[in-house]
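Running this now, will post back.
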Amino acid sequence: MKNNVSPDDLSVFLAVLAEGGFRAAASRLGVAPSKVSTTISRIEAQLGVPLLLRTTRSVRATEQGQALAERIAPLLSEVNAAVIETASSKDLVRGRLKLNVPGAVMPDILPPLLGDFQRCHPAVEVEIVVENGLVDIIAAGCDAGIRYGAHLEKDMISIPVGPRVQQIALAASPGYLAGRDHPQTPADLLHHDAIRYRLLSGRLLPWELKDGDRTVEVEAVTRLTLSVNAVNTGLGFARSGLGIIGAFRNWLEGDFASGTLVPILQDYWPVQAGPRLYYPSRHASAPLRAFIDTCQNSA
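Update: finished.
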């Protein structure tokens, strides 16, 4: 038997049962009571069975009507939920975000940003590739990159991410400084042991200090050299007393507060621009646009 009963008519039927009468159902649905009555009569005619028992004071379901209501109520509820979810999906960001970043942003800059991002966009999968050289993010299959002072291609744009400026600090453990003269000028560093980072080019990361209006590069005695890819490990060696280390001040604040490391030549520490997020100027995915918004809102 062909069934032409519409979901809209069935919703009216459920409204009558829920409200206990035609007039109350009509009021809830915003239609005339006569339309409700006509709809119920049409359903009964199409199905060939009575669905409601009507009296002057009440309306209740027949056995067939009750069975029908129990079957269709959860189905129509699921349909309504699906429609609402679809209508609101324009605000739900889904997909994958792949970032290419240097190790320098991993300890303290990127974690809070991603924390904020994923609280707002839990349906996005994030992948982080840590590389310290400037890479072609498109060729590498990444959506965006983070770098310090990098020269960008013409089709790339960039925005600040994290602190706008960062200070380069020198620090050493109390154990290392015990029995040694504390450096008072940049020249004094020549008589101390240094923990240095080697860049991917093979060059040691320079120690550059500000002396008034001048920038002074100091070639300290290197006792331990670490690859720039091992940037997160340097502070552990400094805490162990192996020498003086140069690092971002924001990495060192916890050690300064606890006394595990002490500042060296604080008046000479230089500042540099903070990291920037760079990405193609066109065709940004929804996850990338959402991450850009997170970065801008955190400023």
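The mean pLDDT is 87. More later if anyone needs it.
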